[in-house]
Design goal:
With 255 residues, this protein is α+β, with helices and mostly antiparallel strands. The protein folds into 2 domains: 63 residues; 135 residues, no CATH class. Strand 1 and strand 2 form a beta hairpin. Helix 1 crosses helix 3, helix 4 packs antiparallel against helix 5 and helix 5 packs across helix 7.
């Protein structure tokens, strides 16, 4: 009898421990599910709000959406009709050596984008976007919502400082873009000058805008894109972390 009693006691303790373990596990899973559900719901809501056209709700939550989306998830309504993006940008870099010689122009964009298409989950995910962000900020282009407000303002007051991008916010954005381009160029020149043994003193950037063939011109064999662009001034060379994955194509070999 005593032995049977001890066995029952041990069995009841084991069952009780298993029940407590199961309850704790389920409580932890429930908490994780609730937190994950909240975070996913918040992310999808902010993403949806970020992609919507200009509206009062979006304006009121602008700081939240920009802080959450940042540069990594940046996207806007211009991806879609009726006014989708209609041009491609190519960023070139040129290096001025201490001896006065120039390296010529190197395409920093085409090879990197092609590598991104081949490896969409690799390091090129970010590399393929950096030049776009730098170019837009150098031109004083801010977030999509602000640009929509600027367009509405320019329609009624073309001489306004915000419209001519001479306001404090535009100048601040342009200053950041200038630094980004200078560092991108410096990183490219570090790679260009690596084999020559020369030292780089300055870097210059060139931006080429190529319009995408309109759908209405899809069958027109005589259609030629109207190429536009600009060159920056010479920026002082900076010692920056090298972008080892970036692909540089000499201008003579670029297509």
């Amino acid at each position: 009898m005593r032995k049977e009693g001890r066995d029952c006691y041990r069995l009841s303790r084991a069952v009780s421990c298993n029940v407590r373990t199961i309850i704790r596990t389920r409580v932890v899973l429930l908490i994780v599910t609730i937190i994950s559900g909240f975070l996913l719901t918040y992310h999808f809501f902010i993403t949806f709000l970020y992609l919507t056209p200009f509206n009062p709700v979006k304006v009121s939550m602008e700081s939240n959406t920009q802080q959450h989306m940042g540069q990594l998830f940046a996207q806007n309504w211009s991806l879609f009709a009726p006014d989708p993006l209609h041009s491609n940008s190519i960023l070139y870099a040129s290096c001025l050596m201490d001896g006065g010689g120039e390296s010529g122009w190197y395409d920093m964009t085409s090879g990197t984008i092609q590598a991104f298409h081949n490896q969409p989950l690799g390091a090129y995910t970010r590399l393929a976007r950096m030049h776009l962000v730098a170019i837009r900020q150098y031109q004083g282009v801010t977030d999509p919502t602000t640009e929509l407000v600027r367009q509405k303002l320019c329609a009624v007051d073309a001489e306004n400082a915000a419209c001519t991008r001479d306001d404090a916010q535009s100048r601040s954005v342009q200053s950041v873009g200038k630094k980004m381009l200078a560092r991108l160029g410096s990183s490219a020149c570090m790679k260009i000058a690596k084999d020559s043994g020369e030292k780089v003193s300055k870097v210059k950037m060139r931006v080429i805008e190529l319009p995408v063939r309109p759908y209405s011109e899809r069958s027109n064999k005589e259609w030629v894109p109207e190429v536009t662009g600009f060159e920056t001034e010479w920026f002082p060379f900076e010692q920056v972390a090298p972008l080892s994955n970036i692909i540089l194509i000499p201008e003579a070999n670029a297509t």
